[in-house]
Amino acid sequence: MYAERASRLAGAVVWTNTPTGAGGRAVLPDGCMDLLWSEGRLLVAGPDTRPYAPEGPDRSWAGVRFFPGTAPALLGVPAHELRDRRVALADLWPAARVRRLCDRIEAATDPATALEDVALDAAARVAAPDPLLRRLVERLDEGRPVSETAAELGIAARTLHRRSLNAFGYGPKTLARILRLQRALTLARSGVTYAETAVRAGYADQAHLAREVRELAGMPLGELLGAG
């Protein structure tokens, strides 16, 4: 069973997922990175460009999903180095520090809240998130073209691409596609017809929506919603 709540860390979400016996479902690209806790281990989920299928038996998870573009500064690693990867936090931070954090979470009554505290502590050690990156995410999530957004933000296309690689793990066009996919899924899950979903999410037509869902989610939209 999956549950989530808004985090005390601005823009982040704290979530838990416990086995239901129905098998794990694929994790879809969403523009975010996550700090994960499961069975005594701290992991980092990098930015996905394709569906991620959890391996092994079902297990309980807790996670903090960071607002797009904010995790690399907290973790001290460019996002593109973690693209489509799950890595141990001990590969990014000193092992002794990670062991102390694991002991702290293991002893907590609520591991999800303890994990959130780890994220808050990390955020307190670094500068505030770059407001330009947040504006970029907001504009693209509104369906604005990348070129128009770059001009509005007063940043050259090449510079925007480089900064996007570091912050999101891929360029702004890929980020725009992933955010558009998430808009479409939200609409379709609310009962909006596929044709209307395509128009409102910013696709050329329903066939364009179908191609993008198959490419980014790995299955047809109807199958994806049935699996959710």
Automatic annotation (TrEMBL):
Pfam families: DUF6597 (PF20240), HTH_18 (PF12833). Residues 130-227 form the HTH araC/xylS-type domain. The keyword Translocase does not apply. SMART domains: HTH_ARAC. Keywords: DNA-binding, Transcription, Transcription regulation. PROSITE patterns: HTH_ARAC_FAMILY_2. This is AraC family transcriptional regulator.
